[in-house]
Amino acid sequence: GAGVSQTPSNKVTEKGKYVELRCDPISGHTALYWYRQSLGQGPEFLIYFQGTGAADDSGLPNDRFFAVRPEGSVSTLKIQRTERGDSAVYLCASSFTGTSGPFQNEQFFGPGTRLTVL
Amino acid sequence: AQKITQTQPGMFVQEKEAVTLDCTYDTSDPSYGLFWYKQPSSGEMIFLIYQGSYDQQNATEGRYSLNFQKARKSANLVISASQLGDSAMYFCAMRDTGRRALTFGSGTRLQVQP
């Protein structure tokens, strides 16, 4: 498809385990974002990539969370030593980095990965 | 720091009627962008409309319009001629200079009744 894809759609793990969540952005989009959405809340920013580099990782809650985008396309969000509080929907979005001004460049979201930590 | 406030956790509207979803924001940056997203039960966030802080006119996209009142720091979404398919969560979000991340409000659940 032409949209942002995320795998898996659902992930159930046990407390203390390691998980990887994958995001495949829209082809040609140079910017990629990860957000976390807890039940009943709006998405919260985690990290933003411009190309291969993390341009803003100020939203990562602690050092158990890490993300990579080695070739400037697919990104993986990695969570070590998962905790029950990590349970949420993890959303990925992508956008162009255009020259039309800094405030447009709509972010296109994927369907999310629902992570449940038991 | 940016903050988005959506004070209506839930709203009901009759089919074919118009509805306004409230959003107020706070930022110290003079340049910023305001967004509205729709999130149906499937979970995907769908972009609806954008308003720049320096735009002179209120944004419109089909049945969606944004009532932008800069002095009051409000950016309400107006949906005209509501349809059953408009039932969803609606999120207001903003982004300011130098930061590409969006800050979202807590959302409003809209239910359109036949």
Labels describing this entry:
heterodimer; A: 118 residues; mainly beta; 0% helix; B: 114 residues; six-stranded mixed β-sheet; globular
What does this structure look like?
The complex is a heterodimer of chains A (118) and B (114). Helices cover 0% and strands 47% of the residues of chain A. Chain A has no helices and 11 strands. In chain A, strands 2, 4, 5, 6, 9, 10 and 11 form a 7-stranded mixed beta sheet that branches. In chain A, strands 1-3-8-7 form a 4-stranded antiparallel beta sheet, with no helix packed on it. In chain A, strand 5 (44-50) and strand 6 form a beta hairpin. Chain A is globular and about 40 Å long. The mean pLDDT of chain A is 92. Chain B has 114 residues and is mostly beta strands. Chain B contains no helices and 12 strands. Chain B has strands at residues 3-5, 10-14, 19-21, 24-26, 32-39, 46-52, 60-61, 64-69, 74-79, 88-96, 103-104, 108-113. Chain B is globular, with a radius of gyration of 14 Å. The chains are: A mainly beta (118), B mainly beta (114). The A-B interface holds A 31, 33, 35, 40-45, 48, 50, 55-56, 58-59, 89, 91, 93, 95, 101-112, 114 and B 4, 31-33, 35, 37, 42-47, 50, 52-53, 91, 93, 95, 97, 99-107.
Q: Which structural class matches the secondary elements of chain B?
A: mainly beta
Determine the strand fraction of chain B and express it as a percent band: over 45%
User: Main β-sheet of chain A, in a few words?
Assistant: 7 strands, mixed
- Most extensive chain interface and residues per partner: A-B, 32 and 28 residues
Query: N-to-C terminal Cα separation of chain A, in Å?
Result: 32 Å
Query: What is the overall silhouette of chain A?
Result: globular
Task: Detail the topology: elements first, then pairings.
The complex is a heterodimer of chains A (118) and B (114).
Chain A: E1 5-7, E2 10-13, E3 19-24, E4 31-37, E5 44-50, E6 53-56, E7 65-68, E8 75-79, E9 88-95, E10 108-109, E11 113-117
Chain B: E1 3-5, E2 10-14, E3 19-21, E4 24-26, E5 32-39, E6 46-52, E7 60-61, E8 64-69, E9 74-79, E10 88-96, E11 103-104, E12 108-113
Parallel strand pairs in B: 2-12
Antiparallel strand pairs in B: 1-4, 3-9, 5-6, 5-10, 7-8, 8-9, 10-11, 10-12
